[in-house]
Design goal:
- The structure is a single chain.
- The protein is of the alpha/beta class.
- The protein has three domains: 3-86, Orthogonal Bundle (Arc Repressor Mutant, subunit A); 91-162 and 276-302, Periplasmic binding protein-like II (D-Maltodextrin-Binding Protein, domain 2, 3-Layer(aba) Sandwich); 163-274, D-Maltodextrin-Binding Protein, domain 2 (3-Layer(aba) Sandwich).
- It is 43% helix and 23% strand.
- It contains ten helices and eleven strands.
- Strands 3, 4, 5, 6, 9, 10 and 11 form a seven-stranded mixed β-sheet that branches. It has a two-stranded antiparallel ribbon with strand order 1-2.
- α1 packs across α4 (59-87).
- It is rod-shaped, with a radius of gyration of 32 Å.
- It starts with a helix and ends with a helix.
């Protein structure tokens, strides 16, 4: 027995005539009769009484019709749910973000818009460093990730830059460099970081920004003193507030109170920007992943 046979049976019962039912189903009458007889054999019952004007249900046929209708309704409802999942308007989206990517306005905008436009999509949000998010997407534990700089490029992953923003220097409020005005003309240069105590996100977490900063310092013969390496940028800001040293973070990370941390722009001549990067699998182009990727592209272009 299969769904097709149940549909044939219900159509014959509704029309009361094999020929008319065959026309509705778009098939010939003899194959339809064979399918009904096959269904009767499988169930071990007689479903219809044949007469010159057509067919009519037997008592057991009426019982089977009720069950068949329920089965078809359940199957059709399931098919509709699957279609919505495939179309990307229903399901669960597993999204990973890094701490610094989470505070960017575009990230919160994409998440908020997804909930508004696609309420049938549930979001399972997790946080990790860039390496962890990238690995989770590659191993299919996550559909998508939003990170900063790309830390590794496993085969089969797509990395797309959604936005770029300037970096700023985070300083203890009593640091001499904090006395500078927060304007472009008074921006902190790489040379100003020479022999300064620096707190940086450790290499496994965000080698992109970390490595870029140290490379540019080396090119300018600037030698900062790396006094601490941490896993998350929020931790680095806590250490800055405690007077341990300076740090360089994306501009959107300026969340600590002005009474504990001062932020000053890093001169554009330093050439150090912080990207916001979307990562997903190149073979995952349907369902909730496709919906999220399209939405992220749309909002990034409008920003």
């Amino acid at each position: 027995m299969d769904i097709r046979q149940l549909r044939y049976f219900v159509t014959v019962a509704d029309t009361g005539h094999l020929t008319r039912a065959a026309a509705v189903l778009g098939m010939q009458q003899p194959p339809l009769s064979q399918q009904i007889k096959a269904l009767e054999r499988q169930l071990g019952v007689t479903l219809f009484v044949r007469h010159p004007k057509g067919v009519s249900l037997t008592p057991v046929g009426h019982e089977v019709l009720c069950e068949a209708r329920r089965a078809l309704e359940a199957f059709d409802a399931m098919a509709q749910r699957v279609a919505k999942i495939t179309a990307g308007v229903r399901g669960v989206l597993h999204l990973g973000v890094t701490t610094s990517a989470a505070v960017h306005a575009l990230t919160s905008s994409v998440i908020r818009t997804l909930r508004l436009e696609h309420p049938a999509i549930e979001m399972a949000l997790s946080e990790a460093n860039a390496a962890g998010v990238t690995e989770a997407v590659a191993s299919s534990k996550l559909h998508c990730g939003i990170i900063r700089a790309v830390v590794s490029r496993p085969a089969g992953l797509v990395f797309e830059t959604l936005a770029r923003e300037p970096t700023v220097v985070a300083l203890p409020v009593d640091h001499p460099l904090a006395a500078r005005r927060p304007t472009g003309r008074h921006a902190i240069r790489l040379e100003d970081l020479h022999e300064q105590n620096m707190i940086l996100v450790r290499r496994p977490g965000a080698p992109g920004l970390y490595a870029d900063l140290l490379d540019k310092c080396a090119q300018a013969d600037v030698r900062p003193r790396v006094v601490d390496e941490v896993e998350r940028m929020t931790t680095s800001l806590s250490l800055v507030a405690g007077g341990v040293g300076l740090s360089v973070v994306p501009a959107s990370m300026q969340r600590a109170p002005a009474s504990t941390v001062a932020y000053r722009p890093l001169a554009s001549s330093a050439g150090l920007e912080a990207p916001l990067t979307l990562v997903y699998r190149e073979d995952d182009t349907t369902g909730v992943t496709a919906t999220f990727v399209r939405l992220a592209h749309r909002l990034a272009q409008a920003a």
